[in-house]
Amino acid sequence: MAETKAQADAAAAATAQADAASGSDVGEATSAAPAEPTQHAQPTGQDLLQPDEAAARGDSRPPSTKSRTPPKSLDIDKSRPQDFDGELATTDELPPPETLRKIDNYVVLDRHGKTHTFQSLYSGRNVARRVLVVFVRHFFCGNCQEYLRSLSESIKPEALLRLPISTFVVVVGCGDPALIDMYVEATGCPFPVYTDPTRSLFDELGMVKTLALGAKPAYMKRGMLRTMAEGIGQGLRSIPRGLALKSGDQRQVGGEFLLEPLDAVTPIGTPQDERHKRAAIGTAEPQGGQDGADDGPIEEKRVTWCHRMRTTRDHAEIPELMEILGLDGHGQPIKDEKRWSKALQERKGTGLSMASEMSKIGEAEEKTS
């Protein structure tokens, strides 16, 4: 009986991962439209794992969800998901300050399952003044894993912390926190990874759902068959721990959001000791997550640049990220000149970062040194 159950789990996991990786499950495309989202109270740490636990029990009832309605300025019709009609119609409108205040106390989980407020990822003691939050798809998604590999090759923690205004990157997924270690190992990501299993942050920030594959970006260096096989393999290897079906919603896509201070030259409540920041480089949680550990005022932040994915492989290209972060260069070129040229020329995001101001600060520091 145990062997039969394991075989059934393996088949289910393999099918789910193949569908998610290819983005072409026709059966899902013709299924009934999802129910209208409803508004709920802010999730607690215990609430965050309930949807996955329900799936593990085989419960057919809809899972409990939290804060499912995006802010009015970012409202998108989700009643007819365009899963197979090319790019999904969405917006790169910057989230207003009231949206950021609303989600400041929303909860994310770290690799140990410990809860942290979203605000603690980008504000507080020993946290960089500028933080790029990268929202990724489910933890078995080969497309997003390729993105983080490319990002990690070109954007180093040391380079970010050497900028005139300290800068860092945080990654947020939507699966079980027990899969974070596997995800970090698979991607070689040197930045902290958290998860939002209820996808409350995804919804409030206007990110959408789709299985559309879209055009192949420059950050995709491995072939589709290989990324699909790797994702399926990760799912199968997760069966013994009961995590094969807990990687996150396979239709959910993410995006990138840059949070910066209101004033480039007035550091309030910023990292006071560079030793602590640099000692944390290379660990799974180099910054943030220190709820209630701040002794001074917290510097107010705002979203100055953002991009929301329209397909399952529509992250902002690495040259664009390096540009808005204020880093020199364009990243690692690829052999496909056409795709690389497109990555250098096109810009997906909206907004204006402090990169130009940092350049002036850097020049002033050189003159006085």
Helix and strand element order: HHHHEEEHHEHEHHEHEHHEH
What is the rounded distance between the termini? 73 Å
> How many extended strands?
8
DSSP summary: helix tally? 13
Protein name: FmHP
Organism: Purpureocillium lilacinum (Paecilomyces lilacinus)
Structure explained in plain terms:
The protein has a six-stranded mixed β-sheet with strand order 5-4-3-6-7-8. Strands 1-2 form a two-stranded antiparallel sheet. The chain has 369 residues and is an alpha/beta fold. It contains 13 helices and eight strands. α1 (2-22) packs antiparallel against α9. 33% of the residues lie in helices and 11% in strands. It is globular, with a radius of gyration of 20 Å. It has helices spanning 2-22, 26-29, 50-57, 97-103, 142-154, 157-161, 180-187, 200-204, 224-237, 274-280, 318-325, 337-345, 355-368, and strands spanning 107-109, 115-117, 130-135, 167-173, 193-195, 255-261, 301-308, 350-351. The protein has one domain: Glutaredoxin (3-Layer(aba) Sandwich), CATH 3.40.30.10.
Features:
single chain; 369 residues; Glutaredoxin; six-stranded mixed β-sheet; 8 strands; 33% helix; globular
Task: Give a summary of the structure in a few sentences.
Residues 1-97, 345-369 are annotated as: Disordered. The chain has 369 residues and is of the alpha/beta class.
